[in-house]
Structure formats: C-alpha cells, structure tokens
Amino acid sequence: VSAASPPIGAFREEAGALCVLDQRALPDEERWLSFAPGPPALDGVCLCIETLAVRGAPAIGGIAAKGLAWLARGTTTTTAAAFVAEQRAASARLLATRPTAVNLQAALDAVGAALAAAPSQEVDGLVAVVADAAAAVCAEDAAACAVIGGHGAVLLNDGDVVMTICHTGAIATCGQGTALGVVHSARAQQKRVSVFALETRPLLQGARLTAWECLKSGIPVTLLTDSMAAFALARHRVALAVVGADRIAKNGDTANKIGTYQLALACHHHQVPFYVAAPRTTFDAGCETGAQIPIEERHPDEVRRPRGQRGFAPADVPVWNPAFDVTPASLITGFITDVGILSASALSAALQRQDGAGRGLEQRRG
Amino acid sequence: VSAASPPIGAFREEAGALCVLDQRALPDEERWLSFAPGPPALDGVCLCIETLAVRGAPAIGGIAAKGLAWLARGTTTTTAAAFVAEQRAASARLLATRPTAVNLQAALDAVGAALAAAPSQEVDGLVAVVADAAAAVCAEDAAACAVIGGHGAVLLNDGDVVMTICHTGAIATCGQGTALGVVHSARAQQKRVSVFALETRPLLQGARLTAWECLKSGIPVTLLTDSMAAFALARHRVALAVVGADRIAKNGDTANKIGTYQLALACHHHQVPFYVAAPRTTFDAGCETGAQIPIEERHPDEVRRPRGQRGFAPADVPVWNPAFDVTPASLITGFITDVGILSASALSAALQRQDGAGRGLEQRRG
To answer: Is residue A137 pLDDT above 70, yes or no?
Structure first.
C-alpha cells in the first residue's frame, strides 16, 4: 500500500494547543483556530463542528475524539469517578453538535469504550487512556484512507485526468481523503494525474475546498461548473470519475452529494468508468436499496444566497434543495474500499454475509 | 394561435423617452433606464447592449432598431443626405456593440434596407420610415414568439411541470420569449403549468431572470441548481423539458447555454421529452453538424467570482468555461418553431432545401 503524506489536514496538535483549520474561511484565508487544554478545547471543538469550521464525517469523528482527549489533558478532576463523569457529559455534548453523523457517534463510542475498559483508577492513567483511544480513532481513519488510495491508484495511469464532485480530500478526513485520496496516492507514485473538479452547488465544496486542496498539494486542477460535466466528457479525455459516498445500500445504490447522480449518468453515456471510494463504515447492511435512504432537504437560502450573498435569485423564490442524491448501482463501475475494489454484486454478497452473521466486509480486513 | 400578453418586456416607449429594463440589477431591483430622443437614445442603447443591461439576441435586435428610431426622432439634420449619413454611422456603432449577435445585424439591416428603399426625400418622411421599420422588427419577433408559444402549448396539459435552463422569456425577446414563451402561452390557455428552473451557472440567468419573470408573471416556479436536474427527473413528475437555442445545425445538433447537453442526457435517461424552441433565424443551413459550431470560452472569473463576489474559489485556480454546449439531434424530441413542431429529420430536410435553393423554412411561413 502506498499513500501520499498529506501536506494539509483538518486539525493538528501543537505543544500547548489543539488547532483546527477553519474551513469556512477557505479558499480566501487559511485561518487556524487554537484551543488550550481543558474546557476551552471542548468548547472550541463543539463550536467548530456546529458552525462547520470542520466538516467531512471522518474529520468530525476525529476532532470529536481529540476534543475529549484535550479536555482530559486539562482536567481539574481528582477522582476517577469525576473524570469519567466529565468525559460522559462532554461526549453527550459533542454528539449533539451534528445529529446525524455516523462517524461522530462511532468515534465517541470508541473513546467511551476504552475508558470503560480501562483498569486504571488514577486520573493520570485515564487521561492517557483517552488520549490513546482518540489517537487510535484518527490513525484508523488515516490508515483506511491510505488503503483506499492504494487500491484506487492502480486504476490510474500517468497523464490521466480524473473528474470528481464535492470535497473528499485530506481536510474531510483524518488522512489523505477518500476519492481525492486516490489522486493523492497516484501522485505519490509519480503518476502525473490531474483533476477536473466540479464546483458542487449549492455549497461549493468543489470550488472552495477541492480546488484549494489540489492547488495546495501541487495537483493540477481545472474548475468546472456542475453543468459542464457532460460536455467536458464529450470534449476532453477523462480517464475516470471517482466520488465519495455518504451511505451505500446493500444493493450498491449510493447516496452522495447532490449532482453525483447526474455525473454518473453523463459518465455512463460517455463510457467513462465511474467509481465510488469509501471506507467500510459507509456501507449500510441494514438498507436494502437506495429507495430506503432518506434524503435531507436543506434551507432554500443555500441556493438563493450562496455564501450569504444577495443578487443571485429572488429572495422569496421557492427552491428544492436536496443535499444528496442516489446513484443506482447499475451506473457504478466499482467501489474502491479499504478491503479492495468491489463490483456492486461482490459488495452485495459481502454485505449479505455481514447482515446475516455480523461478518462479511468486517472479516475481510487485513 | 394563442399568445399571452407579456406583462413585462426588455424595453418600452413612453411619451418622451425610450426606457430599458436594466437586467444587471435583477432580481434585486427593477431599475429602468430612460433616454431622450436624439443622440442620448443612441448613446444609451449602445451602452445598454455593451454592458449587458439588455441581453438575449432578439431583444438586442429590437432595442438596436429602436435606438435608430429614437435617434431619428430627435435628429437635427435638415437634409436627406445628412439624415442617412447619421443613420449609417449609428448603425455601424450599434453593430460593434456585440460582435457576434446575428439578430443585431439582421435588425440593423432591416432598418437600413427600409431607409434605402424609401421614396421620401424629406427628413420628416425618413424619420417615419425608420420608426416604422424599427416597429416592424419588434413586431415580427413578437409574432414569431407568439406562434412558437402556440405550437408548444399544444404539448402541455393542465398541471404539467416543465423544466428549463437559462432565460428564454419576455425580457430576452421583443415578445413573450421562446422556450419560456411556450409556458406563457399554455398559461394563457388556462393550463396550470409550472416551471422547474435550473439556475444556470455560471451567469445564473435561470436564478436571476427566469425565476424573476415567472414570479412576476404569476407562474409557479421552483429553483434548482443545475446539478439537481437528473435527481429531480427521478423524484418528481416532469412533463417535458424545453430550452432555447443559440444555433441549430442542419442535422439538428443544437448549441445552447452550457448545461443544456447534460439536461438532455438526463431527460433521455428518464424518457422525458426534450424540446428546443427557436425561431427560424436560429437555424443555420450553412452548418452541417454540431462539430462545426464554434464554442466561445469565456473568462475564468465568471466561474471563480460569480456576481463579482470573492470567497467562491481560489482566485488563481484554472477554469474551463465554455459558454455553450452542443446537444446532438438524437437527444432532441422535437423543435418547436414558428413553422410548427419539427423532428430533427424534418428540420434537416427543410434546411437541405433552403441550402440548395434559398427556400425551405423561409418558404413555409404564413
């Protein structure tokens, strides 16, 4: 497995402070927010998640775990019971910052489980347990990204152009990213791969974050509006498209950022391979097909007033604003996962086993 | 033929002034610019075309003709020769405002031809000739819009939802518009038709102008980002899509606003009829296929800095910004024209005749 060292990340730890990259200020400004150990770190992390200063489900899970660790590092509790109570309250508060993020729940559960299983009854020992558990959450996500990138890079040749939507890179995860991580891995293998980034209306994660991360990482990038994808496939040589996923049903139907389905249709028409890159945590064995995936509809002003600006649309025009769409498995060439590249049918078979016996994809690891 | 009375227009004439709706200020403000007869009207019209205060090829042709008429109305020339010289100079100036607009050239030629054929050698008589010729340019465009709308309205039933891209309504023409004119006509027939308007990045004509015109005209409208078109077709019942055209090749391949091709692909996949609404002037018998249509690529800042705003993308990110794309005839259900609804093959046959003998579509009029 080869993985690029990501030159950037959603957060970093300095000697005395937990630092979070404020993604709201990108791409105009690279602003870092710094929080001291103890309550300031917890308050800061909660606010960062709530206000979308940090976004991307894996990155949210990682920073939440780090929030617990930095709260522990500055704790003033003197008994194990008080320490555990402080951690539990903090965990509940962090969980409430974004109600639907699966990774957030999983990260907090992992730290809580480590604490519950800890033999130490000294506060110092418990602080170390929490720190280690938080580090493990981040390391596991980074490792999954590296494995996904390694598998995906096999699909790319020197000189290839890759099309993608939304942002799935380093600052959305604790590692080098998922779909964009495939490009990072290919570049680390000295393949001169470049990116066609769709801007990703309404929230412009492609224009603001993917374009920024590519420029920052030395990856040649060309920005397109979402409406240009099909014509770009007609007029340019694009090797493949690779996108992330928010949730993958048992039959391979994939929920991802709005616009993904349209891109998949355009790729299908032009016979350009269309891949989904995602870790196992994205697969939902309890969901039969895409029809069962609930689609969040968000506020009309995301469409009417991009970046809070006026002058883009009538202030009161009705809007349909689904945050995600569902791409049917039939349009997906393959799934680039941390257990290899799977076809939709291989994925279904693995998830069938997982659903039946609690095994399947989980068992195939390593 | 039934046509709605458009409640709005790109320009209007008052007792002492030629008034132009400043489309740059839409949708936030309905600002009218007024110009007195004589040189102020000519200067004003030139500036309005150059700065895109008025846009839409038929509207540009109409306002240019009116600019000549209002210059004539305030002329201080006293001989026929001086009057004609003034008109010729004005016509040359108007032609230079937008170098590639076919309608602009045609409108100026029509007024010039009327003046050249005029028997009167009195200035007063020539002023009337120019006024009549300019009025005819506008009336012919309005009539073509009404006929297109009448033909297209046949395709729509009460309760239908129509999807469209860009702006093709009243303020883009001298009448009720082309593609959006079909909706105006259906509404005038008491069919409760509503519109799904794609915002049309990068210049947002759908969000700014189509949404505004629909609200202004009492047409129920829902605004979508361009990336939502395919998912909307999957989740909503859309009767048909209808779009305008910038240029139609002999085989039916159609150049129109970027995003049109992607919408046509999505309609094809969902078996939703996809129509192009355009007057005969849009058909180019000298162009065999879409491959021969040159595609204008515009400034990266249209993508990077929508409405002149910062914070949407890195300031220096490379951009591909084609203003138009080409939809192959195979994806187009039919052409709604001022000579009826034609299939691509019927269109090709008519254009073949026109190309060979200067007849064809032109002969079928009336």
So the answer is: yes
Question: Would you state the pLDDT for residue B25?
Answer: 93
Residue B291 half-sphere exposure toward CB, CA atoms < 13 A: 2
Residue A2 amino acid letter: S
| Model confidence pTM above 0.95 | no
Q: What is the average pLDDT score of chain A?
A: 92
Q: Which of B198, B212, B227 is most worth mutating to test chain A (most A CB atoms within 10 A of its CB)? A: B227
List, in order, residues 6 or more apart from B173 with CB less than 8 Å away: B10, B56, B58, B59, B62, B141, B142, B145, B181
Helix (H, G, I), strand (E, B) or coil at A344: helix
| A29, A224, A227, A309: best to mutate for the B interface, most B CBs within 10 A | A227
Q: Does residue B160 have an active-site annotation? A: no
Distance CA B45, CA B111 (A): 16
The values of phi and psi at residue A11, to 5°, are -155, 165
| Mean predicted confidence (pLDDT) in A166-177 | 96
Starting at the earlier edge strand, list the strands of the sheet with B221-224: B221-224, B194-198, B161-164, B240-243, B274-277, B334-337, B340-342
Smallest CA-to-CA distance from A295 within A326, A264, A259, A252 is with A326
With a pLDDT cut of 70, the percent of chain A lying above it is: 94
Asked if A94 and A207 count as a contact pair (C-beta separation under 8 A), the reply is: no
* Mean pLDDT across chain B: 92
| Model confidence band, residue A6 (pLDDT cutoffs 50, 70, 90) | very low
Nearest to B303 among A196, A223, A234 (CB): A223
Q: How far apart are CA B228 and CA A258, in angstroms?
A: 6
ipTM value for the complex = 0.90
Q: Give yes or no for a contact between A61 and A101, defined as CB atoms under 8 angstroms apart.
A: yes
Residues of A carrying an active site annotation: 246
Answer whether residue A67 shows pLDDT above 90.
yes
Classified as helix, coil or strand, A342 is: strand
The C-alpha atoms of residue B161 and residue B143 are separated, in whole angstroms, by: 25
Residue of B211, B311, B322 with shortest CB distance to A314? B211
Q: What chain B residue is nearest to A228 in terms of C-alpha separation?
A: B259
